[in-house]
């Protein structure tokens, strides 16, 4: 069985990317590894918001850890997108908290650790100068991933 790594966040482009990966999984009998990521700053903001809601409503959430929240988001996002394609697609969620500049390393190490043989990610259109100055996640993964990479351009 093949295993494909899909890098997501909550944008429409990532919804389309996950649908594309779902078609791949359905047609090729592959498992999807959904890598959901957030930055440490966004995780901190999320934790602060949860604490505020808990105080204001006098309630307690079961999971307030940023990793658990990222996992739950990815599970719900995946279920929503993939239910129309094939609800029986095998999905494994891998939540990570990392700086955007380190994301390519996390993608590559997760893909290697889980023996993924295909990667799906969203890329940004940038000029060659923009790539040189700001870097380009898709380009780094394309150059260093040992297998096919599907890139959906935003």
TrEMBL record:
Protein name in UniProt: Universal stress protein
Stretches assigned to the UspA domain: 2-151
CDD domains assigned: USP-like
């Amino acid at each position: 069985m093949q295993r494909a790594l899909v890098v997501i966040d909550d944008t429409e482009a990532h919804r389309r990317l996950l649908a594309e990966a779902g078609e791949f999984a359905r047609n090729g009998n592959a498992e999807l590894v959904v890598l959901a990521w957030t930055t440490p700053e966004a995780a901190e903001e999320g934790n602060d918001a949860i604490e505020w809601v808990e105080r204001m409503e006098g309630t307690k959430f079961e999971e307030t850890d940023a990793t658990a929240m990222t996992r739950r988001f990815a599970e719900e996002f995946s279920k929503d997108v993939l239910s129309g394609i094939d609800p029986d697609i095998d999905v494994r969620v891998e939540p990570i908290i990392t700086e955007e500049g380190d994301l390519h390393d996390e993608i590559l190490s997760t893909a290697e650790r889980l023996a993924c043989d295909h990667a799906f990610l969203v890329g940004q259109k940038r000029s060659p100068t923009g790539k040189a100055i700001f870097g380009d996640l898709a380009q780094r993964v394309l150059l260093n991933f040992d297998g096919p990479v599907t890139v959906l351009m935003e």
